[in-house]
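Instructor's aside before we start: the two examples that follow are unrelated to each other. I chose them only because their records fit on one page, so don't look for a connection. First example below.
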Amino acid sequence: MKIKFLRANKNYHYRNQFLNIIVDIFKVIFIGIAVFSINIYLAVIVIATFPFSYFVFLKYGKILKRKIKKPQK
């Protein structure tokens, strides 16, 4: 019996990235609901700043990850 292992290919990468986006969106929705129960104005601020922070991380995320992985001297 042959066991097939998952290979990292392009489709796997895009599927993984898509799932991460969906999970992030659900996180913001649930955090927004929780914050909304505390204070409506705070919830509006959290929901309004999410797209900005998300797109900034998409643009500079690789750079930040590389800098974090480098050993500190």
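Example two begins here.
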Amino acid sequence: MTKSVTQDDRDLLLAEYQPLREEVNRTVDRMTANELACSAFVFSIILFQISTKNVTSIPDWIVIPFGASLAMVVAFVGHERSKVFRRHMDQVEEYLANIERVLSSQFGWTNHYRDVIQPSDARQTGSRRVLWHILRFVALANFIFQCAALFYPNPVA
């Protein structure tokens, strides 16, 4: 965007600004909902597998591989979905930063925020990154443990 803008351009940018800020807020809400849903789903599958361990009406060959695989798929797909949300938010924030640069060279939260944070690819917050690593690790460990229990049902003590 150039620094020489007409009043109509300024009016358009001001009209776009608030809806784009709301889009950032909605994207953060969707990211949070995605994290909560994936975490709840993965841990509910694990708890279901634990609670049905000694139930004879449900065969282990159904519960173990399908449940453990589903937990892994949900964890990995949820993480990929989170990355898509992050990329979308990066694009909106970049456009907001451009609007702020055009409207004011000194003010604007997005411009200030961009100067403080790391580059775009490394911007996912540490806690979100840790959450996804833990969730994927738990799902993978559950898969390995459940499959090992299926093939070796009575481990030697």
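The two ends are 70 Å apart (CA to CA).
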